[in-house]
Amino acid sequence: MKDNNIFKQNTLVSIDLRSNKFNQKPKLIWFTGLSGSGKTTLSIHLEKLLFEKGFSTYVLDGDNLRLGLCNDLGFSVEDRHENIRRVSEVSKLLLDAGLIVLSSFISPLKSQREHVRKIVGKENYIDIFVSTPLDVCEERDTKGLYKKARKGEIKNFTGISSDFEYPKNPKIKIDTTDLTIKKSVDIIFKEIKNHIYV
Hints:
The protein is 44% helix and 12% strand. By secondary structure, the chain is an alpha/beta fold. It has one domain: 3-Layer(aba) Sandwich (Rossmann fold). Helix 2 (39-52) packs across helix 8 (181-196) and helix 4 runs parallel beside helix 5 (110-120). The protein is globular, with a radius of gyration of 17 Å.
């Protein structure tokens, strides 16, 4: 419940001042897709490219946040919503700090992704759908999660026992099945560069 005795505190250093100092436009680059699609790999390598080009960045990864900030959450629909809400609020703070944020989350539901956009502002949101097909993701199974899900050892696993609602009009759609990491990152950078340069 919202406390009526809490008020927003403004600071003397604005997001515009930070943006000008960093010489970049703060943006949230949101990677969505199935487990094993390449979201995390792409976000990590894209951050490296951006960092080398002089951008100030930060990666928010689903597993990393579940080790700390969200370690009290499971994988029910309710917990997934709360996980995405927390990530969105952290992303908003990092945007206010002037950073380019790269967030990698399955975020399987359209309503979840729309909630992210609402929290950070649609003008600050760039969505990337890593559209690698389920069979390719399952073949990779880099964490052994699909095997466990098929055995029933993991409940509510997206793509197996839980739905994934495919984005209809993402800013960027990329299938990593036959693309190298470098090629994929180059494609993404070409699409986003006009949105992040001042």
